[in-house]
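A.,

Following up on our hallway conversation. Structure tokens first:
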């Protein structure tokens, strides 16, 4: 399964997330960068990924898996913004 994001979707998300980065404190940014899913969630996603690779997902499982993928994409972008905040904090304090 391939879920692609178009350039216009990426630009839109960047525009929506920019204000988010502006309101992050270094402490919150650190917590966000270190955020991890619970083991039960990770296990579920891995099980769905295995079934997806085998072409064996039901329509409901496909929708569930796609929602996890989309959430992961957003979290990845949020974590990238948080990392930028932390890097800027280091540069300003140097």
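Then the amino acids I'd put at each of the 94 positions:
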């Amino acid at each position: 399964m391939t879920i692609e994001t178009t350039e216009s979707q990426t630009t839109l998300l960047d525009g929506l997330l920019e204000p988010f980065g502006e309101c992050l404190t270094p402490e919150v940014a650190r917590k966000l960068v270190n955020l991890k899913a619970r083991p039960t969630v990770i296990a579920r996603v891995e099980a769905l990924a295995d079934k997806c690779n085998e072409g064996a997902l039901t329509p409901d499982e496909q929708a569930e898996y796609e929602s996890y993928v989309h959430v992961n994409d957003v979290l990845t972008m949020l974590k990238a913004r948080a990392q930028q905040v932390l890097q800027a904090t280091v540069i300003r304090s140097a």
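Residues 8-93 form one domain. Curious whether your intuition agrees with the design.

B.
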